[in-house]
Amino acid sequence: MSLADAFAPAEAQHRSRVMVSTWGHLAPTPRKRYRLMFRFSQAGYGGSITVISARLPRTLKDSPWLFEDMLDYAGRKSRRGRVSQFEGSYYRTKTGRGRFIGTTRVIL
Question: Roughly how many angstroms between the first and final C-alpha of the chain, as a whole number?
Fold first, then answer.
């Protein structure tokens, strides 16, 4: 165990508090469903995953939580060298996990 490991839990808690105090007003309301669409891709040689564009409802503000949830979803659904699109609904569970319900299809 390193010294960094000893401080990791306290640092993670502090980082979470700073994120909430800075961006908390943009956080999605837990258990509220939002209709949205976003397009994403993965580089042709298995590189990074990118959210290309998104159509969000006015009641859902762009936030670090939404972006992280979209990247997690795209990471599970992307196909190397392809552009895909998700259409459906999104919500965050009470425990803070993002959920997407809808269809994902390759568009390019």
Answer: 46
3-state DSSP of 58-71: CCCCCCHHHHHHHH
Q: Which structure tokens are listed for 82?
A: 């392809």
The count of C-alpha atoms lying within 13 angstroms of the C-alpha of 89, restricted to the half-sphere facing its C-beta, is 8
Helix (H, G, I), strand (E, B) or coil at 49: strand
Q: What is the pTM of this model?
A: 0.81
State the Cα–Cα distance between residues 23 and 62, nearest whole angstrom: 10
CA angle, 61 as apex, 58 and 67 as ends, to 5°? 130
The strand pair at 98-106 and 49-55 is best described as unpaired
Q: Kindly report, residue by residue over 24-74, the tens digit of the pLDDT.
A: 888 888 899 999 999 999 988 878 999 999 999 999 998 999 999 999 999
